[in-house]
Design goal:
Spore Coat Polysaccharide Biosynthesis Protein SpsA, Chain A, alpha/beta
Length: about 375
């Protein structure tokens, strides 16, 4: 007779497999029909909005990439909130204002964090469509057009863009693992968008939405992009993925930097889960099922792993279970000490970061002030 401990251990591992294997494979096998975003449209007024803190190495290239797009310049404005940068970022922006009259700079009086900075900028814009982005995301020629097109054609309230990740000429296991993971995420979001008219969630570095549907980001929120995604879906609005709306970003080659970034993401995940978990029951399909399988179970993976391990210790197979569930991560961390980060090692490191983020969330979040991730463009 199978013991209760065995059932609990297997159930926990099955839920991990569901979110990391079954759900992605299901979406890849049944990707849905491509969406048609073709058609003529009248370009609406657009404001590109982003926060910046000590981005002097990339800020000019960022601004020029926006104004070098094919979107009508008389329909375009840029709003940048500097969170008390002290590396010359503000001076670079001011020098460019004579060249680009619709370039607006707001400097915070105190360090306020990304969410508060963006909220302040949104209040000042009068555009019909806002594009939220990050300082280190470079636009391609058609980026703005592709972010705006589905909205202007009345097919979506918000559009999630695609980030094309680069490693600044540096290729290592960290960069490779992150690119593979993010490519899979894009494929899942594309399938969700095609089949259900929603995707979990919009990439914070590149998304657009009607300003009339914007909701102020709650104080000290880390994942403001996911907050906007879910508040829109909860109001039965379409949030679509457009793979043609491309932004370019350096992917970090530093495992330490990715680890710190995942901790911040985890804190934001838990903030949003506590805010929105009732929707799992109020809107079970498609919202609840997609939210659970794509996001919630993934956020719970470190907890499920620990449950599987602890339950396994109370079975007759405790030695085998211990060797597998403890030996695997230990062996991967040993390999990393020799500079080899396998996909399995990446899985363990990122889930460790998720659990650390959960613990920090429990301690309470008093500030969302951030430091830019050290990517190759900053290290060169």
């Amino acid at each position: 007779m199978v013991s209760l401990a065995v059932i609990i251990s297997l159930a926990a591992l099955s839920l991990i497999a569901l979110t990391y294997v079954v759900y992605p494979v299901w979406q890849l096998i049944f990707p849905g029909k491509p969406m048609d975003f073709t058609g003529e449209f009248t370009p609406p007024l657009v404001s590109v909005v982003f926060a910046a803190y000590n981005e002097s190495s990339i800020i000019e290239a960022k601004i020029r990439s926006i104004y070098n797009t094919n979107y009508p310049i008389d329909k375009l404005s840029v709003w940048i909130g500097s969170d008390l940068s002290n590396d010359g970022t503000d001076e670079i922006i001011r020098n460019l204002q004579s060249e680009f009259p619709q370039l607006n700079l707001h400097v915070n009086d105190v360090r306020s964090g990304k969410s508060a900075t963006i909220n302040s900028l949104i209040e000042q814009t009068t555009a019909e469509v806002i594009i939220a982005t990050d300082a280190n995301i470079l636009f391609k020629e058609t980026t703005i057009e592709e972010l705006v097109r589905p909205i202007a054609l009345q097919k979506a309230t918000a559009v999630a863009g695609t980030l094309a990740y680069e490693a600044g000429g540096v290729i290592n296991s960290t960069a490779t693992n992150e690119k593979v993971y993010l490519s899979l995420e894009n494929a899942i979001r594309r399938a969700e968008s095609r089949k259900h008219g929603i995707c979990f969630g919009m990439e914070g570095g590149l998304y657009s939405m009607r300003k009339s549907f914007w909701k102020p980001i709650p104080p000290n929120t880390f994942m403001e992009d996911f907050f906007q995604t879910v508040q829109l879906i909860a109001r039965d609005q379409k949030v679509l993925f457009n793979e043609a709306a491309i932004g370019l970003e350096d992917v970090s080659t530093s495992l330490r930097e990715e680890y710190k970034r995942k901790i911040r993401i985890s804190i934001g995940n838990w903030q949003n889960l506590i805010r929105f978990y009732p929707l799992l029951f109020k809107h079970p399909y498609p919202f609840g099922i997609l939210f659970l399988m794509h996001k919630v179970l993934r956020w719970l993976t470190p907890h499920l792993y620990l449950i599987a391990l602890i339950a396994g210790l109370f079975t007759s197979q405790w030695l085998i279970i211990s060797i597998v569930l403890i030996g695997l991560p230990v062996s991967q961390f040993i390999l990393m000490s020799f500079g080899l980060a396998t996909p399995l090692a990446y899985f363990y490191v990122m889930n460790t970061a998720l659990f650390v983020g959960f613990l920090r969330y429990l301690k309470g979040v008093k500030s969302s002030v951030w430091q830019p991730t050290k990517r190759n463009q900053h290290e060169s």
